Amino acid sequence: MSAAVEIRGVHFTYPDGRTALSGLDLRVDVGERVALLGPNGAGKTTLALHLNGINLADAGSVHIGDLPVTEAVLADIRRRVGLVFQDADDQLFMPTVAEDVAFGPANLGLRGSELAARVTEALRAVGAADLGDRAPHHLSGGERRRVALATVLAMRPDVLVLDEPTSGLDPAGHRELVEVLRSLPITQLIITHDLPFALELCARSVIVDGGRVVADAPTSDILSDEELLGRHRLALPFGFDPRMARPSR
Amino acid sequence: MGAGHAHPLYVHGHSPIHHLAPEVKIAAAVAYIAAAAVTPRQAIWAFGVQAAGVAAAIAVARLGPRFVLRRLTVVVPFVAFALCIPFIASGERIDVVGLSLSREGLWGAWNVVSKATIGASVSILLAGTTEVPRLLTGLSRLRVPGTLTAIAAFMVRYLEVIAGELGRMRTAMAARGYAPRWLWQARPVATSAGALFVRSYERGERVHAAMLSRGYTGTMPDLGGRRATAREWILAAAASGVAWLVALAAITGTGA
Ligand SMILES: Nc1ncnc2c1ncn2[C@@H]1O[C@H](COP(=O)(O)OP(=O)(O)OP(=O)(O)O)[C@@H](O)[C@H]1O
Ligand SMILES: [Mg+2]
Fold it and tell me: From the CA of A211, how far away is ligand 1's center (Å)?
């Protein structure tokens, strides 16, 4: 298997002196779907921002496919890696949903009917084909999430990175998101605090704490290890038994 | 939910003015304001005609007088300044209800107030009927350099973001029983201005990061939104033409 994402010994300190990543290693294979777990402040979002060069590592390296993430190839990296932000409101800034979805591919140089086709394709993939003319800030939380996902899918990325995609979703929205993500045949890295969600979608999970990977194992093993979860401020919802739940795929 | 992106200046609508291509609206607005600016102050009738023109357009856009008046408060500092002029200006003095005022100063005050009001009303009309990304598209179609539109984009983005954050903070205060009538009475607001700035800045940064993630390189892509038709240009030329005709008539009239 070839690697879709390869992170080696990445260190990163914010300008205010706060160290967020301290020697993080992670490899994700092509087509894999991996859950990234960890407490608040672990460095998950910071890591996500390294995958498409919004943050550049102080030390260590990040590769997307065979391409190292460097200043010189940012445009190519950003086409390959689609990042869905933690807060959908940060992601949607155009007057209409269709224009927001078109923003990415238009930056790639697409115009006219080709662009329109991309927009339709992406909105259809998330079941939001009828939302094109709506204003993003008038959508419900669940609709907004799906549209945010569409804005990224429209760029046809090789790797999809989702930062807490389930926060604020009702059970039906949750269900729809699971279906949509399952139907996408691309490499996915899913940051989440929602452990049942991770179990449902991802065969493999990684726990990040203190800016490094502290566990990397099949999701069902990780969720069964209460002591491990507890040590990293993770907990299953009351009454949830990972051994009873149907594991992913 | 989410006042995520507050659009404090834009009013959603489907009026003919909302549907005009942005480049046409910007050009017409600039021309209209320029006409008001060169109109000689003695030509009170000319300002009347120009003001009536803006008022008519605002009515067509269905912006609502309350909305416009509230936004017009941005000219208050100018008005306050203008009101001082008659007292401090020198020259021939006249008596107005027992106050000795400078004639020159009164004209000066009128000049500032009338032009500021017309200029601000036109701007409110433009912003109220054109979303920010469309304004930027319009600017770049008018060949305004990309760097300038990018700067404008960020100014507007941060203003919008600050307004949104301020709204949320106010809601949070009201929810805990603090309901200042005016913003500046709100001591907690004042003392939390720093927090407001930081929150706004950080949200702005995140929006910017999201834009970069999708390949933004500093210029808004022209999403092929409809370009202006000849009819729209003629309409815009007619609207600002009236303002200019009035201005020129006033200039020649008072010049004679
Ligand atoms: N812009 C920033 N400037 C300075 N420090 C930051 C910034 N963003 C995050 N940090 C710090 O970096 C560390 C990692 O933050 P990060 O946002 O990556 O955590 P996270 O794992 O995504 O947490 P959460 O689950 O709460 O989203 C934290 O200590 C945080 O305070
Ligand atoms: Mg985070």
Answer: 10
- Residue whose Cα lies nearest atom 22 of ligand 1: it is A45
Kindly provide the ipTM of the predicted complex, given to two decimals: 0.84
Secondary structure string (H, E, C) spanning B95-133? EECCEEEEHHHHHHHHHHHHHHHHHHHHHHHHHHHCCHH
| Residue of B184 and A152 predicted with greater confidence | A152
> Architecture of domain A3-231 in CATH?
3-Layer(aba) Sandwich (3.40)
Task: Give the pLDDT confidence of B74-94 residue by residue, as tens digits.
Answer: 778 778 888 888 888 878 888
The structure's pTM equals 0.75
Is A54 in contact with B1 (Cβ distance < 8 A)? no
The whole-number average pLDDT for the span A24-53 is: 96
Min Cα separation B5/chain A (Å): 7
- Domain enclosing residue B203, as ranges: 145-179+186-213
Decide: A11 and A130 in contact? Cβ < 8 Å.
no
Residues with CB under 5 A from ligand 2 (ion): A 45
In a domain, B129, yes or no: yes
